[in-house]
Structures are given as C-alpha cells and as structure tokens.
Amino acid sequence: MTEIAAPDVSETPPLRAAELAAFLAARMCHDFISPASAIVSGLDLLEDPTAQDMRDDAMGLIATSARKLADLLAFTRVAFGASASAETFDVRELEKLAQGVFGHMRAELDWQVVTPAVNKPVARTLLNLAQMAGAALPTGGTAQVRAVEEGATVVIAVEATGPRARLRPEVLAGLRGEGPGEGLHGHWVQARYLHFFVTDAGGRVFADLTEEKVTLAATIPA
Question: Which residue among 62, 88, 103, 126 has its CA within the 20 to 30 Å range from the CA of 154?
Fold first, then answer.
C-alpha cells in the first residue's frame, strides 16, 4: 500500500476555497442534471397527446429518475455537505446512503464496517471512498468497504475488484492534493476534497493499484 504523499508546495499553486467550492458545485450539478432531465423528458411524454401509448414507459422513467435524484441528494448532503449539525453518524445510516448510490451503478457494494458510530471526517471518508471505488468499476464488480477502530484511529480500507478496475490519473492527482492536469475536473475534485478534509482532520490517504483491483485506504483520528 502506497501512501499518497503531499504535493511539493513550491511547485503546486495553492487552491483557493472558492475554487474548490466552485468545482464541487459543478460536480454536483453534473450528477443531478441527468436524472432531473430524465424526469422532465418523462413529463413531456405524458403531456404529448401523440405518445399516450408510451405512458407506462414515461411513468417508469419518472419513478426511476426521481429515486436516483433523491438517492444522490441524500448521499451528497453527508458526503460533500455539512449534514446539518451532526457530528457523529450511525454506520447503518451511512450504509443506506451508500447502497442508494450503488443502486444506480454497475458495481455492487459489500459493506463490512463494524464500528457502530463514526465522526464526521470518517463518515465523509467512508462515503467518498465507497463512491470512488464504485466509479473505478465501470463494467461491474464489487466494492468492499471496511473500517475498524485501532486505539484512537479509525482505519478504512476499500477494495474495488472487477474486470477493468481502474483509477483515473486525475483521481490520483486529487488524492495527492495536486491539480487535475489535463484530466476531468469532475473526477478530480472529489479526490481533492477527500485529501483536503482527511489531512485537515490529521489523517492520511493511501492507494494501491493492481490488475483488476483498486485499493483505497485512509487513517483518521477517531
């Protein structure tokens, strides 16, 4: 397992909070626009008098897309947002949020977290690493999420196993605290945000890439 080292601050321009917020907002809009647009398309079909034979299809599209949008919103509220004033989270609720997102992915989620409750940085790390592991399995596979307390530290390990498992270069750059280079900002910003709040909490991030497996890990004060 290789630790994601901090960037050389002499070579990496500092990222302003406003820039990070803008990239995160763009990422969330990108995630939400697809199901929102599908709902509108379904409503248009319902209102089209020449497409009444597609009414059942339209209702199915609306229902599926509304569920996806609701799942993404609930997940994002904790993974990227402040989640009201909560400072501790029941891992069963975190699993429900993660399973909701994986319900719209090709990969499956194997949640093996034994710690009953975790603090906010750990909760955010679990959700973000889980979603990143699912994204690393574009053709399907299993993302196993584990977390245990070892003294005053929570150790998190997420393994994404499946054919064509991969981690984009911009994701690795974000985990290092670097810029995206020529990669896609939408994939980079989640990793960069993860690096930001893990290191801010006094933790570290690790990654390991092998054939058909991506392993992501973090250690965070409990």
Answer: 103
The domain defined by 2-7+16-221 folds into Heat Shock Protein 90 (3.30.565)
Cβ(113)–Cβ(211) below 8 Å: no
Question: For residue 52, what are its two tokens?
Answer: 């009444």
Contact indicator for 155, 148 with CB cutoff of 8 Å: yes
**Domain range list for the chain:** 2-7+16-221
Q: Give the angle subtended at the CA of 221 by the CAs of 18 and 125, to the nearest 5°.
A: 50
pLDDT digits (tens, 9 = 90+) for 155-195: 999 999 999 999 999 999 999 999 888 888 999 999 999 99
What is the model's pTM?
0.91
Rounded to the nearest 10 degrees, how much is the dihedral formed by the CA atoms of 62, 109, 184, 6? 150
- Rounded to an integer, what distance in angstroms lies between the CA atom of residue 8 and that of residue 157? 26
User: Strands 88-90 and 213-221: what pairing?
Assistant: unpaired
Q: Alpha-carbon Rg of the chain, whole angstroms?
A: 19
Give the CA dihedral 159, 185, 220, 73, nearest 10 degrees: -80
